[in-house]
Every structure is written in C-alpha cells, then in structure tokens.
Amino acid sequence: MVIKMNQFPYTFDNKRYHTYNYFLKNKYQKKIAKVSLNAGFTCPNRDGTSGFGGCIFCSDKGSGDFAGNVYDSLQKQFADVSSIMRQKWPDCQFIAYFQANTNTYGSVERLKQTFEPFIHYPDVVGIAIATRPDCLSEEICDYLYELSQKCDLYIELGLQTIHDQTAQFINRGHDYQTFLDGLSRLRQRNIDVCVHIINGLPYETHEMMMETAKTVGQLDIQGLKIHNLFMLKNTVLHHIYQKEPFPILSRDEYIQLVVKQLAYIPDNVIIERLTGDAPLHDLVEPLWSIKKVTILNDIDKLMKEKDIYQGCLL
Prior knowledge:
Elements: H1 20-28, E1 32-37, H2 74-88, E2 93-98, H3 108-115, E3 124-131, H4 138-148, E4 152-160, H5 164-169, H6 176-188, E5 192-199, H7 206-217, E6 223-228, E7 231-232, H8 236-243, H9 251-262, E8 270-273, E9 283-285, H10 292-305
Parallel strand pairs: 1-2, 2-3, 3-4, 4-5, 5-6, 6-8
Antiparallel strand pairs: 7-9
C-alpha cells in the first residue's frame, strides 16, 4: 500500500496550511511564545472620535480579554505571563504582543515610551502591535518604520469584513477603503501585516464571508487570523440578539467555511489563527467554540478528505 504524504511546504506537523508554528520555528529556530499586554490605550470608536461604545461585540475590556492587567506596569505584566510560559517551555523566547484595544491610538511620544523598552529585553525577539486602520497616520507609520529597523515588528490589523454595511452595523467606525489606505501605508514601509477577519457577523451570508476571504487573499499581507463571532454577556451584540435573534453559524458550517476560505488564501500567507478564544464566564454563543482543539482537528480532517490545501483554488 502506498501512503500519500502531505507535500505542503509550510508546516512541521502535517497541516495543509501555512502554520504560525512553522513560521516562528523556521525564523527563530526555537520555541517562541506571545505575551499579551495591555498598555491602557482606548479606541477612536469608544471615545467619540469615530463613535461611542466600541464594536458591538466588544466587552468593556475591548479586544483585551486575555491581555495583562492594565493596572500593572507593562514590565510586571510581561514578567508574570512569561514566567508562567517558562514553566512549560523553559528555553522559549517571546514576542511582546500589545493586544488590548488600539495600540497606535496616541502620540508618537507615547508609542515610543510604550514599545521601546521591550526592544532591549534579552528574551524578546519581536514586537506585535494590534491596531485599527484609522489610527495609522503618515506620522505614526513613519515611527513604526523606525521601530521596524530596531526589532522584528508585526502589525495586527483589524478588518473583520470588507462589507461596509456590516461594518456600519457592528459600529466599526471605519470603512473598507480606510483599511486599504492604512494597509498601503504600512506596506509602503515594508512592515509585515497580519489581518483579522471574523466569520458569522450578523446577517452576513456565506457568500459575503467567502468574498471577504477571497478579497483579502488578493492583498499584500503576510499573515491572517480567522475566527468566529463571539457573543458575550452584556455587550451591545448580546442586547440586539435578545431583542431580535439572528442566525449563528453552526460548528459544521464554520469548519466548512474556513476550509473553503483557506483554498483562496495564497500559501505564503501565515495562518496565525483559525478559531478564537472567549472568556467562558461571559460566553453566550457559540458554545461549540469552547472545544477549540477539536475544531482545529476537524478542519484538518476536512481539508484532507476534500484534498484541499491553502491556496489550491487560486
């Protein structure tokens, strides 16, 4: 009997997509872990600049439900989390990940004070900064370019959807063209960008979600995070759902959708995430998302069953 081996080049563990684990180990030749930090930034659609209340799916913590304690210094946050990780991986090194809210929403001076201390940490190999495209002025991007000359820099750029009607409904505070403009400013400076998209946003059809993935796959990006919509208690999204329930993606629908989306993403794009995490005590829907490992396993199984590789339908 002849056993057909997986020939996909960007994986160490027989995946059919470009794994983040492969990228990190191939680049740094050792275990790398991300340390999520909360630098106390806010967002322009929370303070009235673009809107109030933030995106309708965000909790009071914004996008930082798993980031460090904002009341601790960044140095303490980093020390606390990295020490826990070292118990599992004694020799690992780290990426300082500024995750909570919009981490370029401030003056250049504040950004310098926030990021630059981590350049000199001996066990930090790079810095990842989560932000929004409407907070990437030329001045900010010039500074990010300077930072990228001092350390490995990764920008995580929220998009969620290419559809402006959905962006307006979820109170995103910017349109798709603003995203394209921000991405362009970063790539003109050769800064690596990982884009975030969400499957299952209210009233989006299967075709709309596929269109988002296909369109993003044609852009000059280096990484992609895909995850499902989370509905958390006491968010605007939760209140809307209680008054007028909208369809929630089933587990099978989500898995089949992700597999189809991956077929349209170029194989050189690093897939940093295919499902997400939500704080269990606040999670309303989808409850199937709790078993994250089984979702990833079933994505692998379906890709093998259908003989799909990342980028195979381009």
